C-alpha cells in the first residue's frame, strides 16, 4: 500500500450548475486521481451530462473546480482542453462533410504540424474500422463508427483526463468493448478517465471508483471492489424520486 494517495488531478467542490433559472446540480463534490477510471452513474435526468459540461467549461457554475492544481473558473472549453481536460460529448459530434482524417486533424488544430499527423495515426490505431476509412467523409460512416471517431478526436488531444459521456451509445456490443478497452489502455499509460455510462456492469468492471448522482446530488461514492456495491447502488438510485423533466 502506498504511504499516501496521489494528489487529485481533478478536484470539484460545492459545484452547482444548471440551465437558466433551473438548477440541475446541487453542491457536487468529487475527485479524480491521475491514472484512474471513475464511473459516474445515475438515472436519466440525474445531472451527469450537466456535470461534465460544467467541468469542461460548456456551462457556467458556482463552487470550485481545480485541474492539475489550477483553478478552472472562467475558462472556456478550448482553454480547458489545452490544459489536458478533454470532454467527448454525448452523440456523434463530428463534421460529416469532412474526411475522417480531416476531422482528426481539426481536433488537433493547435498542435504543431509535424506532431499532428503522428497524433492522428496514434488515435486511429485504436479503431481499425475507421482507420481503414480515413479518406472517407465522416457522414458516410455508420452511427457507431461516428461515435468511435468522436472518441478518437478526444485522443488526438493526448488528454490528462478524458471525460466520456455515454461512449457506448449506438455501438454494437463488440464495439462497446473496443471503446472500453481503449479507456483501459489510457489508464495503463497514466491517463485518467471519467466515464458516464448506462451499461452499469461494464462500467463497474472497468472503473476503479464510482460516484452515483440522483436529483443533481452525489448520493454514493465507493470503490468498485466493494462487495455490496450493487445493493448500495440500487438503494442510491431508487431511494430518490428522480425528476424526469430534466436532461442528464
Question: Can you characterise this structure?
Answer:
The protein is of the alpha/beta class and 248 residues long. The chain has a domain at 10-89 and 160-238: P-loop containing nucleotide triphosphate hydrolases (Rossmann fold, 3-Layer(aba) Sandwich). 35% of the residues lie in helices and 25% in strands. The chain is built from nine helices and ten strands. Strands 6-7-8-3-9-10 form a six-stranded mixed sheet, with helices on both faces. A four-stranded antiparallel sheet has the order 2-1-4-5, covered by helices on one side. The chain is globular. The relative contact order is 0.19. Residues 240-248 have low confidence and may be disordered.
N- and C-termini, Cα separation: 37 Å
Topology pattern, helix = H, strand = E: EEEHEEHEHHHHEHEHEEH
Rg calculated over all Cα atoms: 18 Å
Please count the helical segments: 9
Low-confidence stretches: 240-248
Short description:
By secondary structure, the chain is α/β, with parallel strands linked by helices. Helix content is 35%, strand content 25%.
SSE layout and pairings?
Blueprint: E1 10-19, E2 22-32, E3 37-41, H1 48-56, E4 61-67, E5 70-71, H2 77-82, E6 85-88, H3 100-107, H4 113-124, H5 128-131, H6 143-156, E7 161-165, H7 173-188, E8 192-196, H8 200-206, E9 209-214, E10 217-223, H9 229-238
